[in-house]
Amino acid sequence: MLKIALIAHDRKKDEMVNFTIAYEHVFKPHQLYATGTTGTRIMENTSLEVTRFMSGPLGGDQQIGALVATNEMDLIIFLRDPLMAQPHEPDITALLRLCDVQGIPVATNVATAELLVKCLERGDFAWRELVHKYKPGIEE
């Protein structure tokens, strides 16, 4: 079971809902997280259980970023609106930077999200389980 974050800017929320409907069977066995309204919309339109954080502009991106920083997130689908300025752009940039630092796969559009979900469906993310098992610096 992987931890997957689902985030969508306002004009991309319908796209995210449609995406999660299409791949509900793939997401079902995993632990899902989302920012406020995105999580609510997903739960209203699917049978998926989603742990909701605050709205992105109110700190939800940073809450997900905290999980990324500690390598507790396995995959992020963040449908960004590239044509609309976001008031919390520094938070978004920080989240994407943390994904790069930790090597967390992140999709920022439906095309890339679909590729990652197809990999998830095939079981190509088994390497993430090894990351959790053998975290550097953690003594058991």
Layout of helices and strands, plus pairs?
Blueprint: E1 3-8, H1 13-22, H2 24-27, E2 31-34, H3 36-45, E3 50-52, H4 60-69, E4 75-79, H5 89-102, E5 106-107, H6 110-122, H7 126-133
Parallel strand pairs: 1-2, 1-4, 2-3, 4-5
Could you describe the 3D structure shown?
The model has no long low-confidence stretch (mean pLDDT 88). The protein has one domain: Rossmann fold (3-Layer(aba) Sandwich), CATH 3.40.50.1380. A five-stranded parallel sheet has the order 3-2-1-4-5, sandwiched between helices. The longest helix is centred in the last third of the chain and has 14 residues. It is built from seven helices and five strands. The chain is 49% helix and 14% strand. It is an alpha/beta fold and 140 residues long. It catalyses: dihydroxyacetone phosphate = methylglyoxal + phosphate. This is Methylglyoxal synthase. It is an enzyme of class 4 (lyase). Keywords: Lyase. One of its GO terms (molecular function) is methylglyoxal synthase activity.
